[in-house]
Amino acid sequence: MSGEPSVDTDSPDAPSVVVAGGGSAGHVEPALATADAVRRLRPGARVTALGTERGLDTRLIPARGYPLELIPPVPLPRKPNADLARLPYRVVRSVHRTRKVLRAVGADVVVGFGGYVALPAYLAAASLRLPIVVHEANARAGIANKVGARFARSVFAAVPGSGLDAEVIGIPLREAITGLDRAALRAEARAHFGLDPEAPVLLVFGGSQGARSLNEAVSAAVPALTAAGVSVLHAHGPKNEPTVEVPGYVPVPYLERMDLAYAAADVALCRAGAMTVAEVSTVGLPAIYVPLPHGNGEQALNARPVVDAGGGMLVADADLTGDTVASLVGELVADPARLAATASAARRSGHAGADGTLARAVLEVAGDAAKRSSTRRKGARAMGRTTT
Asked: Residue 157 phi/psi, 5° resolution?
């Protein structure tokens, strides 16, 4: 539990909060974690999520109990092409639709997390003079959040150096992660996956679709790991098939219960996306981070604060082999004192209270906006009585 104090739950003027974080799980999950925290602090608050038909929005958001308003996505092309020429039309169309949603729900504040829906949300809110709060999860801010920060009342970031003038708070995470007691769930988690209750466990995952280089390296490492008494829980992706079959190796297409996967594990081998780093460090799981080999180097930057704090290791994708995995994991699990110290360092580098911090800021901004709106309405009514 986050332990935030509940505030002012029975007011008829409950705030209307709109979260804009659709397009990918890395944007949706922080938005929903913030929405959950808003409702814990202010159960009467009305929270609406903006999203698109792309990605996971239509599956994740309604399942968490939030109304979803679909708007046209505005992907920002990275290179000059035909999509760039169509961008102005797409922006205008999406902003127009978003303005209608903001008016319909009586929005008091818009909270953006970057991604396809954030840019039109920021522009629509600014045009209606609604306050904006921005959260940047990545080590380097994207274009949408750079634009939103220009209009924002408050700006927050997961890590230092994002390029925004922001307060660093970490990434808002759901309570199933921030409140996870790995030790208490260990036996249940291992039974759930059919893992040895006593053997050290390596958890491998590369996102919802898996990661080829991680899959290949782990497949090559499994014989040595299992021979050394290390069990392996491997989420290989729904389109991939495991290439080895030995006792102690548990392949699964996808992990529906990440909380149990974290509880079952002693070490993780994973990519270094912002959400992955935030969750793995917050639960105190030592990790070998393998950043994506393409892009602007952002994933390595995401993991760097945790690694520098002693909570994990960085391995370049090009250097990832079966021998590397077997050696690094074997050395770590063979040294209980080092394993415990790495786990403690990972946990200290996490930000378990980011959801509550952001929610309190959002409610403060929403409350100020609602008061100003109420004052304007009262003034308008008074003016009407005077003129009549």
From this structure: -140, 160
